[in-house]
Amino acid sequence: MFRFDRAETVVDRFGSTGTAATGVASGEGAVRLTCLTIAPGGVLGAHPAPVEQLFLVVAGEGWVAGPDGTRVPVSAGDAVHWATGEEHGSGSTTGLTALALEGPSVRPLAPAAGGPAAG
Asked: Is the pTM for the entire model greater than 0.85?
């Protein structure tokens, strides 16, 4: 057992501020799971997704932005899919923790029949 929210590495690329990352797991086929912590007022600057990515907000609230830069609110329980090469960024005024699952074959699954609809 271990904690995955250790904020081990300060992220300062792409004009990022107040953002830290901890590698959680990796697997075959370049699959990686990272915990991202964005402090209040922090930003993970816009950058292209190196591979397919799911950004899973597990705590807090903030925003994500795609290639057009429009900020879309997100909160715990929300997931965003970024395609390989897609420009994206995120931030928070109050703080946010997210898990980023990355890999060339990562795809979101459709909600189960009878489950809650996408928000």
From this structure: yes
Provide the token pair at 104: 């060339």
Spans of the chain below 50 pLDDT: none
CA distance 29 to 52: 12
Cα angle at 51 between 77 and 4, to 5 degrees? 45
Exposure string over 35-44, b if 16+ CB within 10 A, otherwise e: bbbbbeebbb
Q: Which candidate, 40, 53, 42, places its Cα nearest to that of 14?
A: 42
The sign one gets for the Cα dihedral 51, 101, 107, 44 is negative
Q: Give the CA radius of gyration of the chain.
A: 14
Q: Detail the DSSP E strand segments found in 3-114.
A: 9-11, 17-27, 31-48, 53-65, 71-75, 79-82, 87-91, 96-102
- Let me know if 87 is exposed, middle or buried by CB neighbors in 10 A (0-12, 13-18, 19+): middle
Terminal-residue alpha carbon distance, the chain: 33
C-alpha–C-alpha distance, residues 117 and 105, integer Å: 24
